[in-house]
Amino acid sequence: MIGMHFRKFFLVMAVLAVATASCSGPGGNSPIVTPRPPPTPTPTPTPPPAGPFAYVTNGSANVFAYTISATTGALTPVAGSPFAAGTNPWGLAVDPSAKFAYVANNGSANVSAYTISAATGALTPVAGSPFAAGTGPRGVEVDPTGKFAYVANNGSANVSAYTISAATGALTAVAGSPFAAGSNPVAVAFDPTGPFAYVTNLSDGTVSAYTINAATGALTPVAGSPFAAGTYPSGVAVDPTGKFAYVTNEGDNNVSAYTINATTGALTPMAGSPFAAGISPIRAVVDPTGKFAYVTNIGSASISAYTINSATGALTPVAGSPFAAGNDPWGVAVDPTGTFAYVANNGSANVSAYTINAATGALTPMAGSPFAAGSNPIGVVVAK
């Protein structure tokens, strides 16, 4: 009996020993502790994107660059600004990706090309820049695909077309370029929804319309082109829906308005056109929402503002229009949000800046406006 108790005792002790060993560490003396997972690192906040940026050409043979305050719309010069351009830089454009900027140098028959720093907005000349254009290049635009650039050559009655290197921004002439236009072409605009380009011909009162070859960038005149406009048509803008086009007639103090044939690109004057503007309207822009149009009047130092009828495209003056600007207001641009508008005042060496009333389209000068620019600023664009 006693032997039996001893055997049970030793059996229990053996079981305890095995259990103790199984709970010990490698040396058998410390318990195994399941390691805790490392703490999840706190993610580094992503800085807000820089910009957007605004750029202004002027008679000092350079380009002024600004950062736009997202909250107020105020302009702050970019470090290193202004950036050198050619002689008498005129129009300027930014590609849809905001990687590259282009300036038409009216006095040196070429196009300056730049890369845009996404962090600072600074401009760096592209290798090979400037690129040859025709005589007296004035208007320059990049098509909505970002593949092609077009320059209206005022002195040679044609349009230079280029392919854009997606890697470098360098320009290569399209086969067949330059393409014939009317007399003294000065401005270029695109249908953002279709393969159509429009060029105003200052001296013959017309608008040339083209179909863009999506593969090559070559231009083919639209049937019926050129289309009649008023006296000295200077600026041209197309609404975001691609339904309507607007042309400023400098000599008639009005704006010709057209419906765009979505299939052919042909222009048809809309009912009520032309619409009254100020004295010597020179440039036009449609805001990103397609609700409002703005026209600079160099002869009356003002901006005409209109609401756009979404069904017909007809223009109705905004209450309070025209709005005061500086002397000889020329280029006009609206920021990507449709919140701010900017006007290059050629005669007063500055840029007028406004907030846009989202409901009415009315313009209110923002604090700090106007902002200094170089001498005789002409073109203004906002990098989107």
Write down the overall geometry. globular
Distance between the termini: 97 Å
Report the oligomer. single chain
Poorly predicted runs of 5 or more residues: 1-31
Main sheet, how many strands, which sense, barrel?
5 strands, antiparallel
Can you tell me about this structure?
The protein has 384 residues and is mostly beta strands. It is built from one helix and 35 strands. The protein is globular. The relative contact order is 0.12.
What keyword list fits this structure?
1 helix, five-stranded antiparallel sheet, mainly beta, globular
SSE blueprint and pairings:
Blueprint: H1 2-22, E1 53-58, E2 62-68, E3 75-77, E4 83-84, E5 89-94, E6 100-105, E7 110-116, E8 123-125, E9 131-132, E10 137-142, E11 148-153, E12 158-164, E13 171-173, E14 179-180, E15 185-190, E16 196-201, E17 206-212, E18 219-221, E19 227-228, E20 233-238, E21 244-249, E22 254-260, E23 267-269, E24 275-276, E25 281-286, E26 292-297, E27 302-308, E28 315-317, E29 323-324, E30 329-334, E31 340-345, E32 350-356, E33 363-365, E34 371-372, E35 380-383
Antiparallel strand pairs: 1-2, 1-35, 2-3, 2-4, 5-6, 6-7, 7-8, 7-9, 10-11, 11-12, 12-13, 12-14, 15-16, 16-17, 17-18, 17-19, 20-21, 21-22, 22-23, 22-24, 25-26, 26-27, 27-28, 27-29, 30-31, 31-32, 32-33, 32-34
Task: Report a brief summary of the structure.
By secondary structure, the protein is mainly β. Helix content is 5%, strand content 43%.
